[in-house]
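Before any further analysis, backbone shapes were mapped to integers, which produced the following:

***
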Amino acid sequence: MVETSDIRVVRCGGSKVNLTPPIISNDSRFVLCASGDLVKVYSTRTEEWLHSLQGHTNQVTGITLNPANHLQVYSCSVDGTVKLWDFIDGILIKTFVIGCPLFAIYVSEKHEGVLFLHVSMATDSKNECFQLVSVHLPKSAEQEVEAKEMSAVSSHISKNPSCTAFGRGVRVHFFFFYFSLKATDKKGAKNAFTCIACHPTDDCIATGHEDGKIRLWRNFIHKKEYTYSTQHWHHNAVNTLCFTPEGTHLLSGGIESVLVQWQYGADNRKEFLPRLGGSILHISASSDGQLFCTSHSDNKITVIESSFKVCGVIQGLVKGDAVLTDLMIDPRSKALVLNGKPGHLQFYSLLRDKHLYNLDIVQQEYIYEAGLDQFEVVKAAFDIKGSWLATVEERGKKSSDLEFFLKLWAFDERTQSFVLNTTITAAHTDRIISMCFSSSEETTMLVTAAEDSQFKAWCQGADDQNFWSCDFVGSYHKLNPTNCSFSADSSLLAVSFQEVITIWSPDTWEMLTTLCQPPGVIRDLCFGRLSCSKYLLGTTTKNLLCCWNLLTCELEWSTSVDVSKLQPDPFSENVAAFSYQSKHTDLFVFKPSEPRPLFTNKNVCSEKVHRAVFVPREEPLNSCDESTQWLNRSQLYFLTQNMDLLTFSTATEEDRMLSSSKQLVIDDSVAVTPFYLLLGKHRQQQQKLNTQSHPVADKPQQPQGSVTIKELLHTPAHVLPAASVLCSMFVNSFLISNTGEMDSEKEEEDSEEEMEACDSQQELRAQGSVDEVTPKLSKAQERELKRVRKTDFSWMAGLIDSKP
């Protein structure tokens, strides 16, 4: 089937879940968090993603529960709209169009029908300023309505939502404008405000500061008579504060990744919950005080019981300051693999948008302290079968302080994870800049290239434990290598040395030829695949993309383009090239045999793209359109400098995914449990057996009342009418009306009369006396005749047949 559809850049799974504070439902069953342009709903008990609230067209910047209905939630977005959702059933109730980008949202129980929003101020200053405005929500029956009634509450406030809080009818924001503290005192302490929280019952406000201190302010209603007390444990800035609903405790968090619980009213009495992961950015508490939620810098939400026990972890795609490894696909699990939390590789399922597990590479405790030089994973590569993983970890920015290790990991079938097999402490004398595995399934070989002017080939030993050792060392005129790549069948190895590309035979380690036509140092290097395997592609620092024919050892074609990332598709002949120019990135998809691009997408994003990967599809697409054929077998994912994971998708593919997401697994948004999987498979098998054993039998018709029952059971209870109103409707749906029964009897009598008339006329035609008048029967005789007609006389036929 031919699909003609435009290709669009869409934000895929792995969006940040730590951008805004998460919220907990009143019954502590659900956790809601903003994730890209979605609001995701998770279960606090199973940690499973239930469903998403989808409707915004840009980043969701804030969510808050509706104080008038605890089953509804407000969300605001940069797209300039506020949406009201029923988060239990995932239904969009109403959209309020504000008309300007929104950056935070707040509600107050004392201000019904009013929302408080962070919006940007139009100023001449280069620094962006924000103001707090109140918006009165209009009452309208329409689903989308424009909110025009807006008034400014305060100007020049902080963009950080932690710097605004509501409590006991008092509005507090960015405390620097109300309480005066010198930025630094005589002892050099940093007193700048970082976050605030209002006590739910007392006239008390807690503030966090850059020096790690927490101050509790009182008597602030009276001018210049306020007082404050100081509590101190954090050694760095306090990121977030939160009072429990009863106000008995104050929760604080910072870079130490320790949740601190201060007892309110008691001097420095506190409890600790350490080693929670990344630094704590936000803290939330449920309305009943039974659960706490902390969001962390490693894109994680931790669910904590009031007894200070971790009961769940919702882990998103870990996004640090930069991804040092390439984007890789695990050949076994088809998971996306890249840098995770410090010293780890993370395995992330793109299909389920779920973090699978972390693999500890460094195997050292990470110390969260700014400026401390620690080991980081900088290179990683899988072999073609996923049986081996090679990693490089290093520390030391200067060559004199450089320390690195090359590690080989073997996949363990028993534990279904990778186990350290070999550690090489002196693989090279300088930094490793490139490495790759051979593409052959028969023999596994690893090649590393380093800044010590050498490349080395590593192979498994002949002993039983399969430890790795160096098999060959190669160099070329003492030039530093820049990249290395194997051909599709592993018969050739290409190693670039500055402006020269050398071609080697891995069987004999003979240098076959050199390619040195293009000017500039070689940056990326890759071979063609399938029918284009005879071509070698390379990009240079002189903004050239070149293609060589290895059969003739000549330059096939070249073009002037600044390629920031060259990514071949291992499942087709296609190659993707990302080009950065005029402050935006363009995408070109082409085959090495044809310099004309198959697909071009201008202005994919505004940042440079240095990481990309093709992911194989579980079910290939059937597109015959030339511009979309390159997406049939695999899907292209890429990572921007802002750590946004994006992909390319067709419109028909998005519509199909949207319709499949709306199909109910059990009942609407119920999570799939192991019990359901067992029971559901049993039912499906039973239905299949019944269908095979009775192929002719028709499926019984459902009663008409089933439609009413289905609507009644699938409609949320809080939007249904009173039970007294539904009772008569529900009972009547089971009853059959008298008029219907009388009509059916009348139709039956009419049909019998027509049959009798036909029979009599046929008899008359047979006797040749059609014109004779038949005597008319009385009504009593007609009823008696009908009774006789309905009598079963088949038993008489049996008697007659049995007589001799």
